[in-house]
Amino acid sequence: MQRIDPLDDGPSAGGPGRATAWPEIEDFLRARGADRMPHPGGTLLHHLRRVAQLLGDWGADPTVQIAGLCHAAYGTDGFAPTLLDVTERPTLSQLIGERAEALVYLYASCDRGVVYPRFGSDRPVLFRDRCTGQEHTPPEPDLRAFLEITAANELDVLTHHTDLARRHGPSLYRLFTRSYDLLSTAAQEACEHHLGRYADGA
């Protein structure tokens, strides 16, 4: 898999939409305030970069890496601040491509309290959109990308916030272990390395 280097011009975003180099995406995120928004480990932009880099280290394709870089653009069920309103989806889609934007929205719109317990028990996994209240069934490639981004996000947050790690480590360990068939081998190994200590409490 191709890993995007955030220090060079990077490949295009891929898929329908305008081809965009990595620095242009970061410039957009800065313009929307990501570099001024506090987040465990520094700013939101620091976090977004680390998530994208982790996805690259795990072998995710460039579209998933870019979705990881933008995953908090609309806010999430666990992080309320937003860089864009969901009414601005066409703006992000034009920047990063339709496929990457769709993954960003899938991640942002997930009603975690409803959806997370369904992993490992129901297949296909029925998603609830917290923005609309509607339910839908993502195709498996989207589900895999969603879970890979989720793992990269949570591992980075917990690495930089000890209290959150103690509070949420056991439940996240349960989530990822019952979903291992949807995670890459590298992501599985990272989850075991960072969350295995919580196995007894899971």
TrEMBL record:
Matching InterPro entries: DUF6817
Keywords tagged on the record: Plasmid
All copies of domain DUF6817, residue ranges: 28-112
Pfam families cross-referenced by the UniProt entry: DUF6817
Region Disordered, annotated ranges: 1-20
Entry superkingdom: Bacteria
Name the UniProt record assigns to this protein: DUF6817 domain-containing protein
